[in-house]
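Hi all, posting the design record for the shared folder.

TITLE: backbone redesign
STEP: 1 of 1
STRUCTURE INPUT:
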């Protein structure tokens, strides 16, 4: 599902709520049958969140960041898994470089690798295309396609017109905290700041 909406609509907040990084101030919701209020640990085990800045550590290398991600997920880090993911995201040659030396695009690739290094059932992606060149954007599209083929649910918030956005099975627009599922007949380009007509609402 693709999520769009104007600045401040709450897209990032919604993703963080689903990922259990934020606690609902009222009410409740269920993810994979588990309550956000009562079962956040169960939800956290099965979801992965890609944020604009990522959850990365400057003083660790690319490989060490993925090693730490696996440890935090309760998995035994395996070199072959980490090596395979680094190859997949195009960072194999800089596996031992400290993250503080990475460009914005390289950081985004490594954050994407954090979603791939452990099994997840729900992938939450906040502006996955930001900071990436055309090759990096294609990588995002390929990863989303792989998730869908594996049966992983993808909730993607983006203002950029990537293939994964255009081919989303459902599109929702968030306005003032209210989520509306767009009819299939309504063109998504109306709600994108890239490729939309003049006057289309800019989204963050």
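Okay, here is what came back for every position:
SEQUENCE:
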């Amino acid at each position: 599902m693709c999520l769009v909406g104007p600045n401040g609509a709450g897209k990032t907040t919604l993703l963080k709520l689903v990922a259990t990084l934020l606690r609902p101030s009222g009410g409740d919701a269920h993810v994979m049958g588990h309550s956000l209020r009562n079962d956040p640990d169960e939800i956290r085990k099965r979801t992965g969140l890609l944020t604009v800045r990522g959850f990365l550590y400057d003083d660790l290398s690319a490989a060490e960041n993925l090693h730490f991600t696996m440890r935090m997920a309760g998995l035994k880090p395996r070199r072959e898994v980490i090596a395979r993911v680094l190859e997949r995201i195009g960072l194999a040659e800089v596996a031992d470089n400290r993250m503080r030396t990475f460009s914005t695009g390289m950081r985004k690739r490594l954050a994407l690798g954090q979603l791939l290094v452990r099994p997840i059932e729900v992938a939450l992606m906040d502006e996955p295309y930001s900071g990436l060149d055309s090759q990096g954007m294609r990588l995002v599209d390929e990863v989303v396609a792989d998730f869908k083929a594996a049966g992983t649910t993808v909730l993607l918030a983006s203002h950029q017109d990537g293939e994964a956005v255009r081919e989303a099975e459902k599109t929702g627009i968030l306005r003032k905290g209210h989520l509306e599922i767009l009819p299939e007949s309504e063109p998504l380009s109306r709600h994108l700041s890239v490729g939309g007509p003049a006057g289309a609402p800019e989204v963050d």
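COMMENT: The beta strands are 2-4, 30-31, 34-35, 47-50, 122-126, 153-157, 171-175, 178-181.
Let me know if anyone wants the other runs.
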